[in-house]
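Researcher: Let's walk through a ligand-bound prediction step by step. First, I give you the protein sequence. Second, the SMILES string for flavin-adenine dinucleotide. Third, you return the three-dimensional complex as structure tokens. Ready?
Model: Ready.
Researcher: Here are steps one and two:
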Amino acid sequence: MSARVIVVGAGIGGLSAAIRLASRGYRVTVVEKLDRPGGKMGEVRADGFRWDTGPSVITMRHVYEGLFAEAGRDLDDYLDLVPLQPITRYFWRDGATIDAVADEATMCENIRRAFGPRDVDGYRRFMRYAKRLYDVVSGPFLYRQKPTLRDLASLPLADVFKIDALRTMHQAISAHFKDPHLVQLFDRFATYNGSSPYRAPATLNVIAYVEMAQGAWYPRGGIFQLARAWERLATELGVEIRYNSPAQEICIASGRACGVRLTSGEVIHADAVVCNVDYTWARETLIVDGTRPRAGNGKLEPSCSGFVLLLGVRGVHDPLAHHNIFFTQDYQREFDDIFVRRIAPRDPTLYVCITSKTDPDHAPPGCENWFVLINAPYLSEAYDWQIEAERYAQHIKGLLVANIGRVCPLENATSLVQVERRLTPWDLQATYGGHRGAIYGFSSNTRMAAFMRPGNRDGEIGRLYFASGSAHPGGGVPLVTLSGIAAAKCVEEDLR
Ligand SMILES: Cc1cc2nc3c(=O)[nH]c(=O)nc-3n(C[C@H](O)[C@H](O)[C@H](O)COP(=O)(O)OP(=O)(O)OC[C@H]3O[C@@H](n4cnc5c(N)ncnc54)[C@H](O)[C@@H]3O)c2cc1C
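Model: Step three, the predicted complex:
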């Protein structure tokens, strides 16, 4: 009889591990506290509107193709992934605007038209530099087990310099671009894993390469379709997914994980347990080793959190694209608010995703579904969302009207919003068990983050594995997919 593995959590990391293990012949049960797959990748419907609640940008398509190919399937049979052109439309308050596209010649032309010729060469140089980063770091940092400092030391010296870990992202970007708009545009990629461009190592400029050279996709029907596709494949492979089944404890005997106790009292025995729940949260609430709960990785700073407004709005706004960014004038201050003062930024960058631009049935005729995301601090005593959320939502809606009103006429700003839902960092923590409401697990605000992040195999408890944004290689949909694959490989090695 093949070995049995329990996966705690049906987020993308958990389902990816389940798919890989089931395709290798393991008997897999997933227990999930919610009534649906996808974790942070959820959806909400109200009054004819439909919104995704978490991810909105999907990159690294090849990672998903690889997962499906391992299972003998073709991703295209499960998802209709539409390449987005433009990927994002950027707006500044001085009237500057540019469409970011995943085609170098067109992007150079867009830069020339928006900001003149002086940064066109800088863009080409930046993309060559970012490709070199990708070529060097993707092997040791993304597609294998967690790197150690010894792995770093074993790299050829020339490659160690190419990793560019001594500068910050912002410093490296500023060395390539003269125009401050472009510096801000490329600084923004730090937020893709919840970090600050003023603190994260320049190595993270690899994120810009992944999006600007490889492209970004949208699954027709909404991002949540991706969770449904993972669920469908897992089920076809024989994975048992049990929704509304919160785990209370990961059972440990003789130093090894041996099953899961649900809050219902039921105990499910297994040869190995893969934990998709946020690492710190799991350490604090699920892993009771002997009699004493164990602390999480206190040395690593959580990633930023997010404040989300789901707005059903009246009117169709042609100057807006599927993804839109309205930049703040003071980016450094925004990140200082988030990571130093730990308060909701007073004048934040506004991200507005409108899936009804691509899927018109996501809003009633003549309306749009705006998903508005503001980067916010992880939960701390410095800011109380229970008190501030209402006032902050009003403030953000005012900023939206002011910023969007500058680029397209808003017929009646006071009756613009027909339906409103919101998600605060508290909701993110309470709903998904994300430590301090962090969206991406841990931030990469130090050079050592990649080495300090928890690995996919627990260092102390045998047969316990981690597959999530808080484990190697980190947060974001492609990376948590890789995390699931890496955790599954550890299980395969240990149960061989
Ligand atoms: C607002 C927002 C915007 C984002 N934007 C992007 C984006 O544009 N692009 C991108 O790539 N990424 C984005 N992300 C990040 C991305 O969503 C995450 O990195 C990824 O989905 C995390 O997946 P995961 O599998 O690690 O964890 P999760 O999605 O957190 O899944 C963990 C699962 O464990 C379950 N669980 C928790 N406790 C228990 C328990 N006791 N028993 C059983 N089950 C339990 C939870 O219910 C959940 O289903 C965004 C996230 C948010 C919130």
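Researcher: And what stands out?
Model: DSSP finds 16 helices and 21 strands in the chain. The pocket of flavin-adenine dinucleotide is lined by residues 8-14, 31-34, 39-41, 54-57, 246-247, 276-277, 306, 308, 373, 428, 432-434, 439-440, 468-469, 475-477, 480 (CB under 6 Å).
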